[in-house]
Design goal:
This protein has 19 helices and 14 strands. The protein is an alpha/beta fold. The strands form 3 sheets. An 8-stranded mixed sheet has the order 7-6-5-8-9-11-10-14, sandwiched between helices. Strands 1-2-3-4 form a 4-stranded antiparallel sheet. Helix 1 runs antiparallel to helix 2 and helix 1 crosses helix 5.
Length: 497
């Protein structure tokens, strides 16, 4: 009976662990689309159901233990192959949803394991009902352990390929334990155990080949030509990739680049410097979202700043800063404090803090969970944490609904490029104050402004072209629906991506 519990636990652990791995793959491939998890879950449950149904035919087989081993071997191998298979298919079709049959097939093999294990280890007697209930409990506990252990422990320590191989070894080990516990001819036992060992060794040898450029294939799709990321950070919070040119991708979507220069401005960092024209003296600033750190460096360069608190949910971004001179100074600036937490949760937990400006360096408005920082409820929360005359300034990524939400919460709004500034005080872009602040601004001791008077004029012209005043902005967003925690904004609107 103990063997049945252990195998049932392992079955649940393996199945749910693979689902966690697959979600990471599909989340990255879809750039964090909200429907990625829903479609993956549907495919996964369909596979589990089909596998469980198909297992009944094998339960009539007299050679059941060895057949169960074969299923376990196949399940472990195929589940290990799903992420690289998805990546390969994405490079051909640029359509991650079309790869879901891989999940159905692999989940079907995993779904067949539990009924086979139950049938092989529980005798059909008067106590079979009570025994099967304990086996089910063990399976559920394994599923919980797999979700938590893989999602919060293994993925925080090992890359995806290593975790997938470790799960394959658990599956193969369970297969070996099942065979060893039964009375079978010595030759068959030796062959089965050798097959388990050979399977683990083969998958280990294949792992670098199959997983070595996994995220590059998912990122570039049909444009993949052997590109490799210069830096890749994997942890329980997600995946961060940096290209050779310094472009940052967080969870598969553009997340900025390492640049603080207004002359080059390859990443729109002028939007961060624009804060100096929106508030006369932003001394106390909260920034939600670190990303490449470029925005934080720009705000920290403003001469009026006394304290900048940066809240970032993924600690992996801190690993990027020391390797990039443009932003490395942020870690040495005594005025800057970086906190690893959810931005909204941090605000709720610090009701005593008040800020001259709250800057949200957010992600695309259509990504899963984006409405957490774009909703009316969050706008009200931010408003309650501003000092008199304070400015709420966030990257709306072009969303009219996000702009409308802020316009409903605050008395005054204006647009800077694709960002929205909102305040209860009269709001206008003060070009004179902005230029004065930039003339004093320094990044690692170097002046921010370059090119002399002519460069200033060109920068001013470009910046003023990005400003949309309140009347025009409100007219353009009048018919847009506000974002709330309940309607989740544009997360489920594929047409807005």
């Amino acid at each position: 009976m103990i063997l049945a519990w252990l195998l049932a636990f392992a079955s649940g652990f393996i199945a749910l662990s693979h689902e966690i791995l697959w979600y990471r793959v599909y989340s990255y491939a879809s750039q964090g689309a909200a429907d990625a998890f829903a479609l993956l879950l549907a495919a996964y449950l369909m596979g589990i159901a089909l596998g469980s149904y198909a297992a009944r035919a094998l339960c009539r087989d007299a050679d059941l233990p060895l057949r169960a081993v074969a299923w376990l071997l196949a399940a472990s191998a195929l589940a290990f192959l799903v992420p690289p298979a998805v990546a390969w298919q994405v490079t051909l079709l640029d359509a991650w949803a079309l790869t879901l049959p891989f999940v159905v097939l692999a989940a079907g093999l995993l779904g067949a394991v539990f009924p086979l294990v139950s049938h092989a280890t529980i005798a059909p007697d008067a106590r079979s009902g009570s025994r099967i209930s304990y086996v089910y409990l063990a399976n559920i506990l394994g599923a919980v352990a797999g979700s938590l252990g893989t999602g919060f422990v293994m993925l925080d320590r090992w890359p995806l390929g290593t975790v997938a191989w470790a799960l394959a070894c658990v599956s193969l080990g369970a297969a070996a334990a099942l065979v060893a516990s039964r009375t079978v001819p010595r030759a068959k036992l030796a062959a089965a155990l050798a097959a388990c060992a050979a399977g683990a060794g083969t998958l280990y040898a294949l792992q670098p080949l199959l997983y070595g450029s996994l995220y590059e294939k998912l990122q570039y799709g049909s444009d993949y030509r052997g590109q490799r990321f210069a830096q890749l950070v994997e942890n329980k919070s997600g995946v961060i990739a940096v290209t050779a040119t310094g472009t940052v991708f967080g969870g598969g979507v553009y997340d900025g680049s390492f640049n603080t220069s207004l002359a080059r401005d390859t990443n729109g960092v002028s939007r961060a410097y624009a804060l100096a024209g929106l508030h006369p003296a932003p001394r106390e600033v909260l920034m939600i979202g670190l990303a490449s750190g470029s925005w934080a460096v720009a705000v920290a360069a403003l001469p009026q700043l006394e304290r900048l608190t940066v809240v970032e949910i993924n600690p992996g971004y801190l690993e990027l800063l020391p390797r990039h001179p443009e932003v490395a100074g942020l870690l040495r600036d005594p005025r800057v404090r970086i906190v690893i937490d959810d931005g909204r949760r941090w605000l709720v937990r610090h009701p005593e803090r008040r800020f001259d400006a709250i800057v949200v360096n957010g992600t695309m408005h259509w990504r899963a969970h984006a409405s957490n920082l774009l909703s009316a409820q969050f706008a009200d929360l931010a408003r309650s944490r501003l000092r008199a005359g304070g400015v709420y300034y966030f990257n709306a990524t072009g969303s009219k609904r996000a702009a409308r939400t802020a316009a409903d919460a605050f008395a005054h709004v204006l647009r800077v490029n694709n960002c929205i500034a909102a305040s209860d005080a009269p709001l206008a872009f003060d070009a004179t104050a902005w230029l004065r602040a930039l003339r004093q601004a320094r990044v690692d001791g170097r002046p921010v402004l370059e090119g002399g008077v002519q460069g200033e004029r060109a920068l001013l012209t470009r910046t003023l072209q990005q400003i949309e005043p309140e009347a025009s902005l409100r007219a353009g967003i009048a018919r847009a629906a506000p974002i709330t925690d309940d309607n989740m904004g544009d997360e489920w609107r594929a047409a807005d991506r």
